[in-house]
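Section 5.1 Outputs to date
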Amino acid sequence: MPEALTPIAPLLSVVIPMLDEAGNVLPLIEEISAALKAYPAVGENFEIICVDDGSTDATVAEIKQAQKLNDHVRLICHPQRLGMSAGIRNGVRRARATWIMTIDGDRQNDPADAAKLLALAWQKGRDHKILVGGIRVNRQDTLSKRLASRFANRLRKTLLKDDCPDTGCSLKIFPRDSYLELPFFSGLHRFMPALLKLYGHETMFVPVNDRLRQVGESKSDILGRATKGLWDLLGVMWLIGRTPEPARGSEPKPPL
């Protein structure tokens, strides 16, 4: 019998962490597919990896329904809630593309902005080490969330000097291998710009659309996130201080 053909790896893997997002799944996947197919540099050459983080509603059923309608969709299920960083990590680990796009599962990020971020990421070639992230304009969140986010961003920028105005925006583009070299911890997704910059990557940030949540409820715990975020911040400061130059981003090389 002839050997089975190895599937051609896609150019872009879209990773979507999801927790109780029933009602958002199908329209979000449709929007992402339409946006990427309309961008000539990607076309049909992508996959969408939905990572369910232990949902108790119909999220998984809707993802499976989407798989029947769209050949680009893949599903990963966590047996229990592990958090957004774990969802991104497991999605990226299973991704087949060399480039990753992350996006929220609540449809507040606009997939139409993907082309803008991809164009910036690839303008110096697809081997360039870069992270391109969104800056949410006209935020549609509650006042308390906007104020908490503003304070956290200013504190982090001051202490880490990562030049990132909005690390909480999930819409990001980056190389898969670069991300997998980062040390993993539960708040990693908020410190990716600082750590990739530490490891010699360029970072760019551009305004993107922020939309009002239409279905479901926010999972954000402002007080809990602030407490954990402070410990994470101190840990990243320690890591930066303990990472020697010029070995940043790789293991130190032995002398010749």
